[in-house]
Amino acid sequence: MNCVSARGRVTLDMMPFMSVEGTVVLLDMYDEHSNPETGFINFGIAENCLCEEIICKKVQGSLAFNPGTQYYYAYGGKLNFRNALSDFLSERLAKGKPLDPEKIVVTSGVGAAIDLIAHMFADSGDCFLTLTPFYSAIEMDVGLRSGVKVYHIHRPDHDTNTLKAFSFDEELLERGYQEALDKGHNVKGIFVINPGNPTGKLLNRDELVIASKFAQRHDIHVIFDEIYALSVFGDDAEFTSALSIPELLNNDKSHVLWGFSKDFGISGVRCGVVYTNSAEYLEGTSKLTYFGGVPSVIQDALARVISDKDWLDNVYFPTNYRRLKESHSYMEKRLTSLGITCHAAKSGFFIYANLSKYMKEQTEAEEMKLYNELKAAKLYMIPGSALRGRDYGWFRITFTSQKNTVELGLQRLEGVLKKRS
Amino acid sequence: MNCVSARGRVTLDMMPFMSVEGTVVLLDMYDEHSNPETGFINFGIAENCLCEEIICKKVQGSLAFNPGTQYYYAYGGKLNFRNALSDFLSERLAKGKPLDPEKIVVTSGVGAAIDLIAHMFADSGDCFLTLTPFYSAIEMDVGLRSGVKVYHIHRPDHDTNTLKAFSFDEELLERGYQEALDKGHNVKGIFVINPGNPTGKLLNRDELVIASKFAQRHDIHVIFDEIYALSVFGDDAEFTSALSIPELLNNDKSHVLWGFSKDFGISGVRCGVVYTNSAEYLEGTSKLTYFGGVPSVIQDALARVISDKDWLDNVYFPTNYRRLKESHSYMEKRLTSLGITCHAAKSGFFIYANLSKYMKEQTEAEEMKLYNELKAAKLYMIPGSALRGRDYGWFRITFTSQKNTVELGLQRLEGVLKKRS
């Protein structure tokens, strides 16, 4: 018997590509011992497995269950944790600009931070803007519980083989906004993902300012999603955090997101961080995190991890950057040798790569056909169309698995492409 | 500038007594070293501090951060944890009746489980029934995010000095249901809290069946909240779990709640458990727990804790029961010596006690006056009116603090009451 609420039905009906496919993959993962033949090689899900031995040891040594972590606490961020985050983010994202611990909220992952933004600032049916291609799970984050939509701003036809293609200017944003209004949408804000996902594109200060002014002009929110902020590994790659530009933050509709899942590779702890000036968001989430707080023992542990500057500066970050660089470089070389164009980005866990030369034509149907051949060969990569890209043939390929897994995945990829060439 | 959504406004405007007052108390807690004079003695918040040294050691020894807990996982319950829960609940709540791990969901506390019930089964403005007095934070659980109401079924005038007063029958439920309909409510279900909070009342099998049949007759949900199931410590006290009565569970609208906050005294880990036959709830929460999952490392740790039968049977539960019994008995004796009637319940962390002989008249205003005098004396106890009781003068008094805290709280109580006698 059907006994689901109208909004429960929205939750049930939403079947985003990355969740559905990701779940299939996670239930049948490659393991060299237990599932070597038929298990999926995961070039899709964005996990960094390159520093397992370092990060696991550190977190394990930081977990302390005692009367100080046993009981009820401040779900949205214990003061010691917010103080530690404030120092950490100030030094590493904000270029030394001071941050205020009272403007920090801790959530059960960055997805939850976005879900709470959708709840607090939008009603069901309202929408947020994003430029494409983008990490489309944001559609789930705003839609699954809150019924909020994402309106895609597609760039005009352009050469996506260069990273410059993923810049934006005022005109592009204004055109997208107007389009959304013309289609009857109630626009509540815009997501700005930096470093870019899937492109790895790093936005410069001008672009951040353009996005901020655009949002202020229309009195909408701007959400700077910087979850890959500290996974920028190119020698000449320069990341600019919105936190480093105070004039972007001195209003109630700018919010910066960061988290532990990517830059520390620990998605299993579920910890996202929001920096915001919005008293309403701070107050609302101080209540709502009761339904999804980061456990007290985890908050204390992470506070210890990010406060150990010696470990961060001399062990973790140098090792992580070196390994990211090596893995990226290896994957890029192998893909290039297959005649595949890769973006030159030096950030994030993936290469956005153009496989269209192995497709009969650049259509979504052909892209999905290739996707399904890869899937049949037990290789999972995210097709650009799932990221709302319209230059069909691009795939997001994660390079941060263990070495032998990367090697095996590349062999499977070569096998599929060889049959097509 | 106001930029909050309509539902965000509901979140901001909801200021439930126990949250508001509890927050004040938590920020200024008694500590024999750091805050001995002006800190609050907490006879309000329901935490069990009697087994700190045992439970902290056990959980600490069970935390293992490794590649198996580092990454994305099944937020709503890893299979190993659901298997362990299934065995544990079968043995300790269901009287050996087998349970199905596929019907278990793990949530970020029982509050989150209720929030998700409100989302999946009710729309904004719908309501759930409860008998009063009751743990009124459920109003926040269904209302804060989902905008769902609670309709109170008050018992007719009766002698609340006996526990029998908190029984119920079919007629009472039907009358309440009809009243709610008459007032235009869209009734979606009923909460049945067993053991009772604040009364400690244990429901018998007949009452559980009455509630279940009532719900089925009207095609509404019945939620058995059994969060104190394993904190029943009287020698002759018999607790009956809905899980032990299979015919209560073989429909899609019966849900049983349990959690770790009370029976293991570890509210800081945020772990609730739902047992349900509802495919919609199971599917919906498998998605929605992405916004509030119990971290992987916590799930594994708790699985270890509840699988160590030797520790459970020979260390933890015997010690916890003995200490609960001793603390309860001590508090009861002291209250009785003040001429205060206490319910004879032998479950939960509190005594529901009748202080009305110290009030000029049995009104809500007088009850709150007494409450505020206690608060001024830095003693926090929950007044019955905050629990929607209408027999004014009753207070919920937690007895599970450390011994010296209990003693000091009783002295403060005696001080306030002496001035009134």
UniProtKB/TrEMBL annotation, chains A, B:
InterPro entries per record: Aminotransferase_I/II_large, Ethylene_sulfur-biosynth, PyrdxlP-dep_Trfase, PyrdxlP-dep_Trfase_major, PyrdxlP-dep_Trfase_small
Gene Ontology molecular function terms on file: pyridoxal phosphate binding; transaminase activity
GO BP field: amino acid metabolic process
Keyword RNA-binding: no
Protein name: Aminotransferase class I/classII large domain-containing protein
Pfam families reported in the protein's UniProt record: Aminotran_1_2
Domain Aminotransferase class I/classII large: 52-412
Originating species: Capitella teleta
Alphabetical keyword list: Pyridoxal phosphate
